[in-house]
Specification:
By secondary structure, this protein is an alpha+beta fold. It contains four helices and five strands.
Length: about 110
């Protein structure tokens, strides 16, 4: 089934996220169970979807891609938090003011 899927590839110090039109290999839950070796091998090359009752219930990716995605989203969250902290500081929010706001139960 052709669709636009995010493709994430991570090098040693590089992160590239793009989208491309591709055919994603799809297994039914039963096929994934009975052809598990093939399923795992395919997941080392690209994400593989698992369907049950005509809906996607899971996606298998390689351990390397999974760890790379975790690192990417962790870094993205850290950057977002830093930007929010910088904006709050520019707006004059100090730790004392923040503690006051959080303590106020009105």
């Amino acid at each position: 089934m052709p669709l636009i899927d995010p493709i994430v590839r991570f090098g040693q110090n590089e992160r590239i996220i793009s989208t491309r039109k591709c055919s994603v290999k799809t297994y039914t839950a039963n096929e994934a169970k009975t052809r598990f070796g093939e399923f795992i091998d395919e997941a080392q090359r690209q994400p593989v979807r698992v369907m049950r009752h005509d809906r996607v219930v899971g996606v298998m990716v390689s351990a390397q891609d999974y760890e790379a995605m975790r690192a990417f989203y962790s870094d993205r969250l850290r950057q977002t938090m830093n930007r929010a902290s910088d904006a709050a500081e520019r707006a004059g929010l100090t730790e004392e003011k923040l503690a006051e706001l959080l303590a106020d139960e009105s």
